[in-house]
Structure formats: structure tokens, C-alpha cells
Automatic annotation (TrEMBL):
Signal peptide (from-to): 1-23
Alphabetically ordered keywords of this record: Signal
Protein name listed in UniProt: Adhesin domain-containing protein
Lineage top rank: taxon: Bacteria
Protein's UniProt keywords contain Signal: yes
Amino acid sequence: MQKILLLAAALTVISSLSTTTVAEDNTVLLTKTFSDSQASYSVHIDNGSIQVLPSKTQTAHFNVYLKPICVEKQSSYDEIPNVNLKSACQLNKENFTIQTSKVDGKTLLTLNQQVYIEQNWQVFLPVQASLDIRARQGKADIQVVSGDLDVGIVSGDVNLITSPTQYKNMKIIALAGNIYSQSKHVSSTDYNPNMVSLSNHIDIPGSGDANIKVIVATGDINVKESEYY
């Protein structure tokens, strides 16, 4: 439990006191593609969302859509850091890149700067690839991954669609939130998608090879089983 609490503390940053809104247009798209179908990847997000889908090829493909978070100064004393904006609500695409590095044998993907940016990731993952997700604030929608999956979110919801034939063990933890599960491997109360799990920590066995772990500090986790994988 101490490690879980440290995760929330480590990812939490001080929020700006300025009033902010997300621009509806002026979206910037960045992409990265990797040919190693068995690699391990890690995506770190400050504010935004991530959608994970099975890749139809042996390549891992990462799209990230960027939107500016428009900042309205509350007083002349507010200091807004340089966030590479053309104007109050326009991004300069040339100043943004997806940075990659090797950390603990995994390919880490992050934006080169994340201040006042909403980032929405779309990941297409090969069958044998594994993925770590770390987010301070955001939402994750994950559909049927066959490799190892490790998700840690400070504030946000997780929707996970998987199959017992894909994973060996699935650990789900919601520190301050609800767990909704349709798995037949937990209690009948948890199987009802309209009912809340009686525990904030459940372990679900499967017949596959992958290890799945999802931890949310504040937010809900919804686990559904798919019969088509």
C-alpha cells in the first residue's frame, strides 16, 4: 500500500491558479512507429487521455493529438511559463516532438514539454508487445492487450476490455473510487456491471500469459470481458 501511495505522490504536480479552457480546434498530430513487435513501451502523460487498441500488423504505432489549454490571466501578476504557443490558443507544431528514451529496458515515450497541453494518445499495440501507462490526470480506454500491461493514474477513470485467455493474472486497485467488473472469476456481486465491487482491490485469474495491473488513486475502473478474443 505504501508503494501505491508513493505513486500518487510522485506523479502529482502543483496546478496553475489561472483559469484554463481547452481549445476545440487547432489540433496538432504527432506520430511514432516501431517495428519491434515484442518490445516493451511506456507512455507518460501529464494531462489527457490514452486509447489502446490491438495492432493489425507487427508494428507498434503511436498517435498523439495535442490541443492547447488556453490560459486566462487572473491578474497582471500571474506568470505563465513559455509553452511554445503562437498566441493565447494556438500551438506551434514545430516546437513539439515525441521524445523517446530507454528506461529499464523499455522504450519511454513522452512529449518534449507538457505545460498547458491536453494530449490524447492513440496506441496500436502488437500482440506480443507490453505497455506501461503513467498519467497525472486523464482517462484510459484499453481494449484486449495480449502482452503485460501496467497502468498507474493519479486522477482519472480506466475502461478495460480483456479476455481471460489473454492474461494470467489481473490486479485491479482503486484507492478512492469504484471497481465495476463483469468477470465471472470474482463474486456474483462484482459480475453485475451495474453493481460496485465490495472491495477496492481485486485479483482475477486467467488462462493466458500476460500480467495486468491497473492502479487508480482517484477514479473508477470498469473491467469488461470480451468473448471474441
